[in-house]
Specification:
Elements lengths: L8 E4 L5 H11 L3 E6 L16 E2 L2 E2 H6 L4 E4 L5 H13 L2 E4 L5 H5 L3 H7 L4 E6 L14 H7 L20 H24 L3 E6 H8 L1 H8 L23 E4 L4 E4 L4 H8 L12 H4 L1 H12 L4 H8 L6 E3 L3 H6 L1 H6 L2 E5 L5 E5 L4 E2 L2 E2 L13 H8 L2
Parallel strand pairs: 1-2, 1-6, 2-5, 6-7, 7-8
Antiparallel strand pairs: 3-4, 9-10, 10-11, 12-13, 14-15
Helix pairs in contact: 1-7, 7-8
């Protein structure tokens, strides 16, 4: 399907998740994304198994994050291969990499060199901690950045210790921010005709992700966020905010007046908390009463009481239950993509709609070096 970036060519040196998540989104929007991969092994993500699902001898993760891309193998330490890649850079609009600082300089593909090849190119990079500073040489790995950025002190209960998020959130955030920066730089190029650099690092991405809580910390005398000990969900939000066990599942309740909640649920213990300030200072006490009460009936029963009164609440679903919901099915979020070797994988589609148009593509992830011949012919490499 033709997208708004159909005239954009991206040379993608990135591996794993952060950079490839950026170029995935750009490919979804129509850009031609050419992955530059090392011969024999390719993107290390090809063998990064996150489950027992393996397609064509490669990880399902690689197939999910590299759909609709082309693969070009090149040993960047060999003169002829490097020369071929530089020819691709001549016609490229964007170059993306997520190597540690200094790697591209050693390969002869730093911005100064690439700018001499193509002065209009957008040179985009992701690092773990930036190109300078005490941590610049440290590995930019998702869990490690979660650990040092304060993020792991926001989930879980007060007595749990640090709790990491169950998804590679920093990788995807950094990729998302890089996408935004690339699009802004492309727009600037249409106005001023110049290329430039776009730099994103995972630590700054993680800190910005926490801007709400971090700003409170900075302006609250340095008071650290305090997680609730009972049904925790957000360090700075008062009761009843949290997830509660019912007799047959779980119920999420967001912000709501505590006495009104008590009336609707028939929980007399909540009726006495009429002062809103106490909903935070006494939140664990309030949430303990609520938690004990909600165990006495089903999720559906509580929803029947709360939803008509416009209380913000929802059942807690796993993937299996989510896919059974009509609301999910109406989103049409899934798509099947097929590799050139015939393997089919079901994955998600791009969540962006432009003028109501959904962006899907049936093209699966490439096998290693699949497009060497066609790209050499197209670009006279």
């Amino acid at each position: 399907m033709t997208g708004p970036l159909s005239n954009i060519t991206i040379i993608d040196f990135s591996q794993f998740l952060s950079g490839p998540s950026c170029t995935l989104r750009l490919a979804d929007l129509g850009a031609e994304v050419i992955k530059i991969e090392k011969p024999v092994t390719g993107d290390i993500c090809r063998q990064l198994y996150v489950s027992k699902v393996v397609l064509e001898g490669q990880s399902s993760l690689f197939h999910a994050i590299n759909r609709n891309k082309k693969s070009f193998t090149a040993d960047l330490k060999k003169e002829l291969d490097l020369a071929a890649v530089k020819k691709l850079l001549v016609v490229a609009d964007v170059m993306v990499h997520n190597f540690r600082p200094g790697v591209m300089e050693r390969l002869g593909l730093d911005y100064s060199t690439v700018k001499e090849i193509n002065h209009r190119i957008i040179y985009a990079s992701i690092s773990g901690y930036g190109n300078e500073g005490a941590w610049s040489g440290e590995p930019g790995q998702d869990l490690l950045v979660q650990a040092v950025s304060g993020l792991t002190w926001l989930s879980g209960a007060a007595f749990d210790g640090p709790v990491p998020m169950g998804v590679s959130v920093v990788d995807i955030l950094a990729g998302t921010y890089l996408t935004q920066g690339i699009l802004a730089a492309l727009y600037r190029r249409t106005q001023k005709g110049c290329g430039g650099t776009v730099d994103v690092n995972m630590l700054e991405s993680s800190i910005d992700y926490q801007f709400e809580l971090f700003s409170t910390f900075l302006n609250d005398g340095g008071e650290l966020p305090e997680r609730s000990s009972v049904n925790p969900a957000h360090a700075y939000v008062s009761a009843p905010y949290g997830i509660y066990k019912t007799s047959d599942g779980y119920l999420a309740i967001a912000m709501a007046p505590v006495p009104k909640l008590g009336e609707l649920l028939g929980c007399k213990q909540l009726l006495v908390y009429t002062e809103p300030a106490n909903w935070f200072t006494l939140r664990d006490e309030i949430k303990t009463h609520l938690a004990n009460h909600l165990k006495g009936n089903t999720t559906a029963r509580w929803l029947e009481s709360l939803e008509p009164a416009d209380i913000w609440c929802a059942p807690v679903l796993n993937y299996e239950a989510l896919r059974r919901e009509n609301a999910y099915q109406q989103l049409d979020m899934e798509q099947e993509v097929c590799t050139s070797q015939g393997s089919i994988i079901t994955t998600t589609r791009c969540p962006i709609r432009i003028n109501g148009k959904k962006f899907k593509s049936p093209v699966g992830a490439p096998w290693l070096g699949e497009h060497n011949k066609s790209l050499k012919e197209k670009y006279h490499l």
